[in-house]
Amino acid sequence: MSQNGNNLAPLIAIIGTDGSGKSTVAEHMVGWIGRFGPAGQAHLGKQAGNIGRALAELPLIGGYLGRLIRKKSDGVNKRIDEHKQPTLFPSLVIAGFTLRRIRRFKRMLAMRRKGLIVVTDRFPQVEITGAYDGPGFPETSQGSWLVLRLAKFEHDSFQWMASYKPDLVLRLNVDLDTACARKPDHRREALARKIAVTPLLKYSGAPIVDIDASQPLATVIRQAEEAVTQVMHARGYANAA
Hints:
Elements lengths: L10 E6 L5 H11 L6 E5 L4 H9 L5 H20 L6 H26 L3 E5 L23 H18 L5 E6 L2 H7 L5 H10 L10 E5 L4 H18 L7
Parallel strand pairs: 1-3, 1-4, 2-3, 4-5
Helix pairs in contact: 1-8, 2-3, 4-5
């Protein structure tokens, strides 16, 4: 059951595939939304891709690490697509990222309890496994007892995080060519998969406003501001600017 969040300050989540400009929009919004009251920002993504790309850029061993990470990632994704649990080492890595995400989520909740309006870059979801800040373990009973325990831990953690509905989800939509042009270091097939998943996410029934992020940034930001203003007024926050 979703948390109504009435005892917490507003939460605005910004989601979209890589190349949609969500980080840029989030950075703008956290400063702009301060006109309604004290604000904070949180990144609630896994950031595994950023870590992998950073390792791939290391001198001497970067190329090898990049190929190894891609091979391991492809192997895990293939098993998930076949509804098989990952093997033990990837399972431990997934669990480690889950713990990291829980810590960030708890810090975000603490900010809201202190009265800070929070803008998040990404938000956990439980509707689609293996994509878009969703669970990494597939829903299957196949696997060793330890892997299944780790899978249950992750599932329960995501259910808990997703139970907190954002006051508004800004969903930034972008076409594949634009996303690839903005993120040339990302694989086209990975971006295509995320773009296809984007409209399927419901975030536990939270209010969602779709924005065409292929538009000029100024237009995207203006539309985001308009949507957030309506939500803030509905929550009783007056515009102090």
